[in-house]
Amino acid sequence: MGNKIQLIDRLRLGLAVSVAKSVTFVVRSLRLGAASVLPGSIARRIEPRLLQLLSKQVKNGVILIAGTNGKTTTSLLLRTILERKGYRVAHNSTGANLENGLMTAMLESTNIVGELDVDYAILEVDENIIPKVLAPIQPRIVLCLNLFRDQLDRYGEVDVISKRWTKVISTLPRETVVIPNADDPTLSLLGQQLPQKVLFFGLNEPENYLEEIPHAVDSIFCPSCGHSLNYKGVYLSHLGDFLCPKCGFQRSQPKLNSNEWSQILVGLYNKYNTLAAATAAIELGVDEATIRDTINNFQAAFGRAEELEINGKRVRILLSKNPVGTNETIRVVTQSSDKTTLLVLNDRIPDGTDVSWIWDVDTEKLVERGGTLVVSGDRVYDMALRLRYSEKTPESHFKLIVEEDLRQAIATALENTPDNETLHILPTYSAMLEVREVLTGRKIL
C-alpha cells in the first residue's frame, strides 16, 4: 500500500488538488453548501486518474463498504474503532458516495501538493458504481452489507446489481479480503464462489426470527439454480437462515457469533452493521476489547437512529428510504411504547423519483397500534393515502394528521408527543436532511 507516484502524475495531481481546495474554500466561505462533491468533480477534470492516484497513497489500504442499507453507520463505526487505535482515516462522512464524492473525501486529507498522509481510507460506495471504482481503488477490504430494492427508477431490481457485483469483485487480486453478509443469499453465494479470502458476518439468533416472511421480500429464490429457498427463519426481508432443497446451496458460516456481541443502536438491522464493522476491524488486527468498548459507546450517524432533545421532548430520526429499511424502522416504532410518529416522504433525486415502494411497506402495523400519525413531505398525500388503505376496519383507532408544511408538521408532531414519550420521525433521505435542519436550528415554534 502507499505506492509512490511518478513526477508528472504528481504535478498534475498537485494542480488538481490546489484547484479543488480553492473551490472548497470559496463554497464554504460563502456558505453555498458542504462542498462534498463539487471539488472532486472539478479536480477530476484536471486529473481523470485522481481516485487511483490518491488510493495508491493510503498506507494500509482502502476499505470499501457497499450495500443498499447501513453503509453510513457501518463506516462511521469502523472509522471510530480505527481512530481509537491512533490511526488516521480518510472517510466520506457526509454520505457523498458517488465518484466525485469519494474523490472529494480523499482530497480533504491531502496537502496542497496532493500528498495523502492517512493510514486507512474508508469509502462508503453507492451499490451502482461498484463496477466503476473497484479497479482504480484496488481496495484492501470489500465489505458487502446487503442488496435490497432501492430507487427502482435508477437501479432496477436486485438481480441486476448482484450480477454486476459478482462479475467485478471476482477480478480483484487474491490478497483482497471480501466480507459479505452470510444471511443474504446473493451475497452468500458470491462469497462462496470468490477466489479471494472471504469472511462472512451474520446473525445466529433464532429468537429474533420474524413470524412470517415480509411482503417486501426481495429474493427468496436460490441464486444458484433458481429454485425456491427453504428458510428456517428470516430476520428481515430475505435475510435469514436458508437452504436450497434442489442444489444444496445454503447459508455460509459467519466468522463471529452474533450472540456474543452487543449493540447500542436500536433495530436488528444495526446488529448487522455492528457485526460487519467488528469483522473488518478484527481482520485489520484491532483487539476485541477496543472494538467492544467502541460499540458500547458509539453515537449514531446523523439521521440513522439519531436521538435529539427538542423543546424538552425526545426525538429519534430513523432514515426510511426503501421497503426493507422502512419496515425495520416501523418495527422499532411498534416495539416501543411511543404513540406519535411523523412520516416524511419526498421524491427528489437522492430519494428516487418512484415512490411506488411505499405500497410494499407494512404500514398496517403502524395503523393497527393506534396513536397519532403525522405525514408531510413532497408526496404527503401519497403517504396519507397509503395509511388510509392500511385500515383494516373503519373503526381503526389512529389519528391521521396531514400537513404539507414540514416545519408545521414537526411542530404538530411534537405537540402531540407526551413529555414521557419519544417522537419517531421516519423520513426519506432528502427529507431527513430537511428535518435535521429544522430541528437542530431550533426554528420550530
From TrEMBL:
Family annotation (Pfam families): Mur_ligase_M, MurT_C
Binding site for Zn(2+): C222, C225, C244, C247
Domain Lipid II isoglutaminyl synthase (glutamine-hydrolyzing) subunit MurT C-terminal intervals: 319-432
Active site location: D354
Sorted UniProt keywords: ATP-binding, Cell shape, Cell wall biogenesis/degradation, Ligase, Metal-binding, Nucleotide-binding, Peptidoglycan synthesis, Zinc
GO molecular function: ATP binding; carbon-nitrogen ligase activity on lipid II; tetrahydrofolylpolyglutamate synthase activity; zinc ion binding
EC main group: ligase
InterPro entries registered for this protein in UniProt: Folylpolyglutamate_synth_CS, Lipid_II_synth_MurT, Mur-like_cat_sf, Mur_ligase_cen, MurT_C
Record-annotated Mur ligase central domain positions: 65-280
Pathway assignment: Cell wall biogenesis; peptidoglycan biosynthesis
Catalytically driven reaction(s): beta-D-GlcNAc-(1->4)-Mur2Ac(oyl-L-Ala-gamma-D-O-P-Glu-L-Lys-D-Ala-D-Ala)-di-trans,octa-cis-undecaprenyl diphosphate + NH4(+) = beta-D-GlcNAc-(1->4)-Mur2Ac(oyl-L-Ala-D-isoglutaminyl-L-Lys-D-Ala-D-Ala)-di-trans,octa-cis-undecaprenyl diphosphate + phosphate + H(+); beta-D-GlcNAc-(1->4)-Mur2Ac(oyl-L-Ala-gamma-D-Glu-L-Lys-D-Ala-D-Ala)-di-trans,octa-cis-undecaprenyl diphosphate + L-glutamine + ATP + H2O = beta-D-GlcNAc-(1->4)-Mur2Ac(oyl-L-Ala-D-isoglutaminyl-L-Lys-D-Ala-D-Ala)-di-trans,octa-cis-undecaprenyl diphosphate + L-glutamate + ADP + phosphate + H(+); beta-D-GlcNAc-(1->4)-Mur2Ac(oyl-L-Ala-gamma-D-Glu-L-Lys-D-Ala-D-Ala)-di-trans,octa-cis-undecaprenyl diphosphate + ATP = beta-D-GlcNAc-(1->4)-Mur2Ac(oyl-L-Ala-gamma-D-O-P-Glu-L-Lys-D-Ala-D-Ala)-di-trans,octa-cis-undecaprenyl diphosphate + ADP
GO biological process: cell wall organization; peptidoglycan biosynthetic process; regulation of cell shape
The enzyme's E.C. designation: 6.3.5.13
UniProt keyword Secreted present: no
Purpose of the protein: The lipid II isoglutaminyl synthase complex catalyzes the formation of alpha-D-isoglutamine in the cell wall lipid II stem peptide. The MurT subunit catalyzes the ATP-dependent amidation of D-glutamate residue of lipid II, converting it to an isoglutamine residue.
Quaternary assembly: Forms a heterodimer with GatD.
Family under the similarity heading: Belongs to the MurCDEF family. MurT subfamily.
Protein name (Swiss-Prot/TrEMBL): Lipid II isoglutaminyl synthase (glutamine-hydrolyzing) subunit MurT
Lineage: Bacteria, Bacillati, Cyanobacteriota, Cyanophyceae, Nostocales
